[in-house]
């Protein structure tokens, strides 16, 4: 699904909406009785397997966001055999995890209500409240990671997330680096 928001925020805060959306997805899945965790920057996982991916695209003028399109893909009622083989071992679905068919309309209603609540919080509260909730569900913090950006690869331990949504990585030389976007891979499974 896609959701369009007109947040009227500075461009540097646009990535926060990916965290807000991940938190909303994770909360809805947790309310179903599953231990959903968030992998920085844009995946939701259950038992170490991806169940949701989020893509955020922004249209901005100078330094102000005009609108944001949140692309949210959640594996709801697929069987594992329906997932391409190359992705199958690292993926799951709500149906597989719960052992039953999910009413998609009810799930969508629950998700949109939760997203609306998180968006209201985003607009009315300090972002630190949302960030603390996100960190409590993070599957990434404390793990050894390799983040690939268009220009380089950064390796180290994920130690936090900045108020703008950048992953903080402590590298082998004990320096820290903030990465605002990239593909995050866990170096070792848990």
Q: Any overview of this molecule?
A:
The protein has five helices and ten strands; from the N terminus they run βαββββααααβββββ. With 190 residues, it is α+β, with helices and mostly antiparallel strands. It folds into two domains: 2-136, BirA Bifunctional Protein, domain 2, CATH 3.30.930; 144-186, Roll (SH3 type barrels), CATH 2.30.30. A five-stranded antiparallel β-sheet has the order 1-5-4-3-2, with helices on one face. Strands 9-8-7-6-10 form a five-stranded antiparallel β-sheet, with no helix packed on it. Strand 3 and strand 4 (49-61) form a beta hairpin. The longest helix has 21 residues, at 104-124. 32% of the residues are buried.
Shape: globular
Spans of at least 5 consecutive residues whose pLDDT stays below 50 are none
CATH T-level fold name of the largest domain: BirA Bifunctional Protein, domain 2
In the CATH hierarchy, what is the class of the largest domain? Alpha Beta
Strand line-up of the largest beta sheet? 1-5-4-3-2
Distance between the termini: 31 Å
Beta content comes to: 25-35%
Task: Let me know the number of strands.
Answer: 10
Main sheet: strands, sense, barrel:
5 strands, antiparallel
Structural class: alpha+beta
CATH architecture of the largest domain: 2-Layer Sandwich
Query: What is the H/E order?
Result: EHEEEEHHHHEEEEE
Helix content: 25-40%
């Amino acid at each position: 699904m896609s959701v369009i928001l007109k947040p009227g925020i500075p461009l540097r805060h646009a990535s926060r909406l990916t965290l807000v959306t991940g938190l909303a997805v994770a909360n809805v899945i947790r309310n179903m009785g599953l231990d959903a965790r968030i992998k920085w920057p844009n995946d939701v996982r259950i038992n170490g397997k991806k169940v949701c991916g989020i893509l955020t695209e922004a249209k901005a003028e100078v330094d102000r966001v005009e609108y944001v399109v949140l692309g949210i893909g959640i594996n709801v009622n697929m069987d594992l055999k329906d997932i391409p083989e190359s992705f199958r071992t690292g993926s799951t679905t709500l149906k597989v995890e719960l052992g039953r068919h999910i009413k998609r309309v009810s799930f969508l209603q629950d998700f949109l209500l939760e997203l609306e609540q998180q968006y209201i919080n985003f607009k009315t509260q300090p972002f630190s409240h949302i960030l603390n909730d996100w960190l409590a569900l993070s599957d990434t913090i404390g793990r050894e990671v390799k983040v690939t950006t268009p220009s380089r690869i950064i390796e180290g331990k994920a130690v936090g997330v900045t108020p703008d949504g950048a992953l903080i990585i402590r590298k082998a030389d004990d320096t820290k680096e903030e990465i605002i976007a990239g593909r995050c891979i866990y170096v070792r499974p848990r």
